[in-house]
Amino acid sequence: MKTIRTYNNIASKGLNQFLKDSYRVSADEAEPDAILLRSQKLHEEKLPKSVLAVARAGAGVNNIPVNDYTRQGIVVFNTPGANANAVKELVLASLLLGSRGISQSMQYVNSLADVTDAHELHKKVEAGKKAYGGGELEGKTLGVVGLGAIGAKVANLALSLGMNVIGYDPKLSVEAAWRLSSDVVKADNLNALLSRSDYVTLHVPAVEATIGFINNEAFSALKQGAKLINLARGELVDEDAVLSALDTGKLSYYIADFPTPKLIEHERAILFPHLGASTVEAEENCAIMAAKQLIDFLENGNIVNSVNFPTVSMERTTGYRITFANDNVPKVLGIVINLLADLNINVIDIVNKSRDDIAYNIIDIEQRPTAELLQQIANVEHVFQVRCV
Ligand SMILES: NC(=O)C1=CN([C@@H]2O[C@H](COP(=O)(O)OP(=O)(O)OC[C@H]3O[C@@H](n4cnc5c(N)ncnc54)[C@H](O)[C@@H]3O)[C@@H](O)[C@H]2O)C=CC1
Ligand SMILES: O=C(O)C(=O)COP(=O)(O)O
């Protein structure tokens, strides 16, 4: 029986991927084989030694100490693109909220709840509406920072709304570039995007290069009166810089998924409670994808959509499979192959891939490996994780 510890609200369609005969899944597993979570912060948690993998049902992995886990041989997965449409649709809402006084006008209408006379109410509605007018999106320019799964969808949607779209992504993958309309204009640097955009939307991960990158300097490059949408991570912006840009009018609205006590106080901050991925569809997509990836790893040793290990996947050719991870240095695989040869064990198929400092190997063999053989492999210098699956 394998065990999975869960955190957060994981969609049942995802949890149901774990067959009851083979898996126990709950929030209370003391020594789980793997962890399945959403936004729970793991930085302060001490993981039991039993944990082989952590799957984030979602995109951002800044709640997971990935580098520490890599050193411990723990494979970290996420679910690329599985919630992108949900975020794209909340960006659409954010664009509209930033262009017309929608949320403020709704508050105004709610404030009229004690006006019981319909004629009187109509007069107040008509008199009040001029305070909440706005502009249209068509013809305006949207700057999209980060053109991955979400950014590309947002860029393409904005084009279909008749907006001009500028994109900035210095690390754009070839695959992501294929998803992007050729009508998106490339900005050579962040400031070039900020100075030309009426709306700016952020879709980058919170990593060293992006934490606090929307700071006073960025705001001085920003077009006067632009609107900033941040459904990516609160850490991307310098909060004081946002507040002072709102105060001076440089920024007309800050629309974000990450409230803070100071931002809530500001009348031109429009804040959601981290709602970007909270749709039935996205929650199911993420949970199913994360669960399937964990199952394939635990049962077959395959690694797909890891953020710290190479992608390694091989069809099963025999019932006996050894997987092992090692420091990415020469000769390790050769030594393991020699161990098998010395024991007259026939290798049917083999795959070896590396990523940065790590190499990962899958070897299908003709007979069941003994505990002694697995221990011998574990003893090879630079090998740090061995399994028979
Ligand atoms: N509010 C919410 O509920 C959600 C928030 N997110 C956030 O959105 C982020 C992006 O998600 P995806 O688009 O799915 O990820 P992704 O990995 O598909 O795309 C991220 C893009 O950012 C680019 N990038 C990295 N550093 C950059 C930099 N310094 N400047 C410009 N571009 C840079 C990458 O090249 C990549 O194309 C996640 O990391 C997460 O923090 C994601 C899903 C839901
Ligand atoms: O996928 C992401 O990066 C998200 O921020 C979604 O977070 P959640 O799963 O809603 O806690």
Descriptive account of the structure:
About 35% of the residues lie in helices and about 20% in strands. The chain has about 400 residues and is an alpha/beta fold. It folds into 3 domains: about 1-85 and about 280-310, Rossmann fold (3-Layer(aba) Sandwich), CATH 3.40.50; about 85-100 and about 135-270, Rossmann fold (3-Layer(aba) Sandwich), CATH 3.40.50; about 310-385, ACT domain (Alpha-Beta Plaits). The strands form 3 sheets. A 7-stranded parallel sheet has the order 8-7-6-9-10-11-12, sandwiched between helices. Strands 2-1-3-4-5 form a 5-stranded parallel sheet. The mean pLDDT is about 95. 1,4-dihydronicotinamide adenine dinucleotide binds near residues 60, 145, 147 and 203.
The gist of it:
With 389 residues, the chain is an alpha/beta fold.
Number of separate helices: 14
Q: What is the structural class?
A: alpha/beta
- What letter string, H or E per element, gives the SSE order? EHEEEHEHHHEHEHEHEHEHEHEHEHEEHE
Q: What's the main sheet like? A: 7 strands, parallel
Spatial order of the strands forming the largest sheet: 8-7-6-9-10-11-12
Shape: elongated
- Please tell me the CATH architecture of the largest domain by its name: 3-Layer(aba) Sandwich
Look up the CATH topology of the largest domain.
Rossmann fold
Task: Enumerate the spans where pLDDT stays under 50 for 5 or more consecutive residues.
Answer: none
Beta fraction of the residues? 15-25%
Q: Which ligands appear in the coordinates? A: 1,4-dihydronicotinamide adenine dinucleotide, 2-oxo-3-(phosphonooxy)propanoic acid
Distance between the termini: 13 Å
CATH class of the largest domain: Alpha Beta
* Number of DSSP E strands: 16
What number is the mean pLDDT? Answer: 97
The value of Rg in angstroms is 26 Å
Q: Could you estimate the helical fraction of the residues in percent?
A: 25-40%
Function: Catalyzes the reversible oxidation of 3-phospho-D-glycerate to 3-phosphonooxypyruvate, the first step of the phosphorylated L-serine biosynthesis pathway. Also catalyzes the reversible oxidation of 2-hydroxyglutarate to 2-oxoglutarate.
Protein name: D-3-phosphoglycerate dehydrogenase
EC number: 1.1.1.399, 1.1.1.95
Domain ACT: 321-389
